[in-house]
Write the structure tokens for this entry.
Amino acid sequence: MLRKIPKHVTIVLNETETLFLLELPSSVVPRDTDEGEAAEMDNRLYEYLTKGKGRNRKVATTGVQTRPVLMKTRNTEPVQYKFRDNSTFASNWEMYDTYNASFVESVELEETNDHELIAEVSLDELRKSRETKELEKLSVNKNYFDAVLVIERLLANNCYNNEQKKFKGLVDEAEEIRYDYKLDLLWTFANEDTKNRCVTGISFNSFTEDMVAVGYGKYYFIDRRKTGVVMVWNIKNPKQPEREYYFRHPVTSLAFSTKDPNYLAVGFYNGELLVIDVSKRDFEMVGEDSSTSFKPAWNMVWLEQNQKEFLLVCFGDGRVCKYLVTQAKLECVQIMRTDKIEGKLKGLPALRLFEGNQVSSSRYAGALCLSVHKPDPAFYLVGTEEGVIHKCAASYCTHHVDMFKAHEGPIHTIKFSPFVEKVFATCGDDFQKCLWIEGISEPLIVSRFCMEPVLDVDWSPSHSTIIASLRGMDIFLWDLQRKIYLPQSQTKSPTNSRNTVCKFSACGKCLVVGDIDGNVHTFAVSGLPIPAFFQQNLFFQSIKNILQTNTDLIGKLEKLAN
């Protein structure tokens, strides 16, 4: 049945929800309201700070110690890995021949061993108990020594668990915030074999900072009967070294390879060089240079060029040689010879010695230390016993690029800053520690705190303004951001021995110090300010504050910084 369509239809209209597609609120408020008065106060403060007298207010850059909340590092860029494609092919016939040959050799070896055992067996061998024979078998089993090594690490962890956490930076600092720059002794690497042997070199492994190689030699020239020892220690077992190597001559320097972390280069007092594979339990030599020069190999660094790694070594007769490890030997190329200076040099002003009519027995000055130029690895710096630094090129032999007077006596260390490329620190026998920047012929800072030779310095890898130095039995921590006329902390050696070598760990949480009695002390560094986000800016600002009275030097520094 169809209905009729109504004449009138009722429609009800309701308001729907408003949808805002774009909203631009007004920034203008009425003057006589509370919001208007607050806006006028903000405008007057802005005018005062930007255009009025407020812009002349005193502003100082200083560090602030707050409780750390970031539990992860800020570095996000991954390490670039190198890849190489290799391929091989093995057929069924090759595998069959190889297996058959190895089976025949094993059978022949068992037969010969049986005949030798029957022929050489004695009455004492027959009287040995079963337990004694099993112990003798274990003494030649490699897996047994690996198991003992793990057990020793576990036992040491029970005694040094908290200290090992401090070394790795896994323990938070104390709640009290203070700038005391304190050194807390964690442990000492030493045993009976290192007693009365001078620590001449310390090198952290490039793959893991848990392993550290220590070279032992002699400190006094009259110690003619001293022999050399190299020990590889691990923080997982501070009481017993995991590798021990004994040599006839004292060790003067050593360095882990960067490309092959299992390679350890060792230099000796008679000029010999060795490269050892520390991954093997037994002594295995990778390369050797036995061409004795009768002059010590004072310092060495690994240098990478054209995807090859070379060993750069400086000797006491002024030679600088480059070595390449190939087929169990070291190929040597002499690239530099440091001549004695004549005439006046730029750099540190020093008194000229009167030699009279004496004729020197050698035209060359002994090269005591070297460092690879951080901005351009093709260049390197060499410090001599005359206090002169030679800048040389690895590819430009027998000539130096530049040289200047850095100290009035022998130079012991040259180290570049890990944050500022052109800045490096030096120390020497003239009781001075100097700070230099490439491009300026005069030192930025000259520190002479006491009448003691400075044997070593090292930059903190976590703070651009903190430097550690060694003078006699004391260990000093300096902070350029605070003051330079006094150290921030002074720590006496735990054994009251003269310190020789110092080196920060990779994370900057610990400092390792060696002395002349064979002790290697490991300290935890605490009470440091929080690392600045812009380390380079903080360094230059600290240097400018120090050089406020030297406007000429500040102008030169600003040109290089820009």
